[in-house]
Design a protein that fits this description.
heterodimer, A: mainly alpha, 2 strands, B: mainly alpha
């Protein structure tokens, strides 16, 4: 009897996992192959529609080569956007970490009885639509908006007006920070909350100063949380085009997400969109693989 | 160990003053408190200002002209209630939220159970895809599914069907991750005990595990719904025209084109429904966990 149920048990788990696994295979993994087929396929000369090629042997690399050739060199009109993406995302992630770490640290260690309230306030941006949060800044940064009125002291200094919303890299980076920093605060909080306060107090008791305690105890113990929080904010930033469209709407600040968004909607350029999708995919899956490998060996060491 | 320091180790300086405060090595880090308060204000004030201006009596979104509800109901043409495009955006958003959540949760919970207990290469691979879909830039999936819808003849059509399929694919990882982390703390012995006492494996899952997972399932339901109604990238690419454009897409399309406060009102309606769902979820969650003392969790020694 236990034998029979153990056997059905063995069959039960694959059966439960099957629908979700099949769903992901058919609608997540297979569509990525469709992107490859479009990227290495042709374009209908009259309708300008993509003609996918399914057989890898017959793949046509001309669209892919076109994109590669226009990244560097004299005709490299894709290059600046890729450089910009890297710079914006690195700067925005760094600022996110600088803002999120102290906030998460304070909430985890010193918030005391306000901890619940503070956590609620930190989670609140999650429940506010990203578009609404960007709309809020569009309102504030308009030429007659609150920000300009404050920095020009209510119209006394008309020269201090800034056209925030016309291709200012600062606006885009701050928009990215504003948009993604809540996603960083929470994993950091979870990681910092797991560090026992006694460890930090022991370090202080043994003569380490605040800075020394942070450098030699808190920071090393929170490193994994930092990596996770960087992953969950930096990778989604790579595909962002809407922050840019909402807060700048200028080609002078466009990022790789804008390249994808602009070409995917233009007849005859879908292959280019596919190339950039594959590029972003490669750039974001590699750190994931490294992380999964690192955390797996970490578990083995622990056990 | 936690309470001793300030009283016992420091020779309690009776005299007040900046010097004494600076010399006290156990003083609370006020700078961190300042950063935290600034952060909370910065992250929420812009949105509150946007909400405030949705009640503006005039057309401006930057100059206050008195309180009114005209952008919600009063204006016979351009208010959220009377403008059919805004009205239908709200309805469509909530409809998508409902459909996607109803499909995602059972699929994800079953997958979490299956992947957690099934050992081998297939579940490990499926697990990797879950993780990847968790942090991958949304635009990659959206473009891939857009290609599927445009170059292939499949049931995946642009419009509500495509949007729901895309949303389910993107959100599937949430219930899987949340439920699995809960399964990790529950362990295997309950279902083994149930099977020893004569339950079938399926019965053990249904009558023991699912009951214990209820809070996690509930939390992921709320999370998925709130996330779906805030979604932008997938629903935009897979929308089949203006009739299937949800609120986020409306905001994106009109934010930079001299909109009226009706757009703020539209965003506020969505914000309020999001917060309502979360609030209801939170109250219900408290009820679940309040009953936990009498429920099966008590035996696990968890409170």
């Amino acid at each position: 009897m236990p034998d029979a149920s153990a056997r059905t048990g063995r069959r039960l788990w694959p059966l439960l996992a099957l629908p979700g696994t099949v769903w992901l295979l058919v609608l997540f993994v297979a569509p990525l192959y469709v992107v490859l087929a479009v990227l290495f396929g042709g374009v209908d000369p009259i309708l300008r529609q993509p003609v996918p090629v399914w057989n890898p042997v017959r793949w046509d690399f001309s669209q892919f080569r076109y994109v590669l050739e226009h990244i560097v060199g004299p005709d490299g009109f894709f290059g600046p956007a890729l450089v910009r993406t890297t710079v914006y995302v690195v700067v925005a992630s760094a600022v996110c970490l600088l803002v999120a770490y102290p906030v998460a640290y304070y909430t985890a260690r010193f918030a005391g009885r306000y901890r619940g309230l503070l956590l609620t306030l930190l989670i609140a941006p999650f429940w506010i639509s990203y578009m609404m949060r960007m709309l809020a800044w569009v309102n504030l940064l308009q030429n007659d908006g609150l920000v300009n009125r404050v920095i020009s002291l209510g119209g006394l200094l008309p020269a201090a007006h800034v056209n925030w919303l016309n291709g200012q890299p600062v606006t885009v980076v701050l928009g990215l920070v504003y948009g993604y920093v809540p996603y960083m605060v929470l994993p950091l909080f979870a990681g910092l909350d797991r560090i026992p306060g006694a460890v930090q107090e022991a370090a202080r008791d043994l003569g380490a100063g605040r800075f020394e305690t942070f450098r030699r105890v808190t920071w090393p113990m929170s490193r994994q949380a930092v990596v996770v929080s960087l992953l969950v904010t930096t990778l989604p930033m790579l595909g962002d085009y809407y922050t840019n469209d909402m807060l700048s709407a200028s080609p002078q600040t466009s990022m790789v997400g804008n390249l994808i968004n602009n070409s995917v909607l233009t007849p005859g350029q879908t292959g280019q969109a596919g190339a950039f999708v594959m590029l972003v995919l490669l750039v974001s899956v590699l750190p994931m693989l490294l992380y999964v490998r690192a955390s797996r060996t970490g578990v083995e060491v622990e056990s | 160990m936690t309470a001793i320091p300030s009283a016992a180790l420091v020779p309690a300086p009776r005299r007040r003053g900046l010097g004494a405060w600076a010399r006290n090595p156990w003083r609370k880090p006020r700078i961190l408190l300042g950063i935290t308060l600034l952060y909370v204000g910065w992250s929420l004030l812009p949105v509150l200002i946007a909400v405030l201006f949705s009640f503006n009596d005039g057309k401006s979104r930057t100059v206050w002209q008195g309180f009114s509800t005209r952008w919600y109901y009063g204006d016979p043409l351009r208010s959220v209630w009377h403008d059919p495009t805004l009205h239908s955006a709200v309805v469509h958003t909530l409809w998508l939220g409902l459909l996607a959540t109803v499909i995602t949760i059972p699929l994800g919970v079953a997958m979490a159970l299956g992947l957690d207990r099934w050992r081998g290469r297939i579940p490990a691979g499926a697990n990797f895809f879950v993780l990847v879909s968790f942090v991958l830039p949304e635009i990659l999936l959206a473009v891939a599914l857009l290609f599927v819808a445009t170059v292939l003849q499949t049931p995946l059509h642009l419009g509500t069907v495509g949007q729901v399929i895309g949303l389910v694919t993107y959100q599937l990882s949430y219930p899987v991750v949340i439920v699995r982390s809960r399964l990790l703390t529950i362990g295997k012995h309950y279902e083994e005990a149930a099977i020893d006492l004569g339950a079938s494996p399926m019965g053990a899952v249904r009558r023991v595990l699912l009951k214990m997972l209820l809070p996690a399932i509930f939390a992921s339901t709320v999370l998925v719904f709130a996330d779906v109604i805030d979604d932008f990238v997938i629903v935009r690419y897979l929308s089949g025209g203006s009739s299937t454009e949800p609120v986020s897409v409306k905001i994106y399309n009109t934010a930079r084109a001299a909109p009226t406060p009706a757009l703020n009102a539209l965003a506020t309606v969505l914000l309020v429904s999001s917060l309502l769902v979360v609030l209801l979820g939170f109250v219900a969650y408290r009820r679940f966990t309040r009953g936990e003392r009498r429920s099966i969790d008590v035996f696990a020694g968890e409170t």
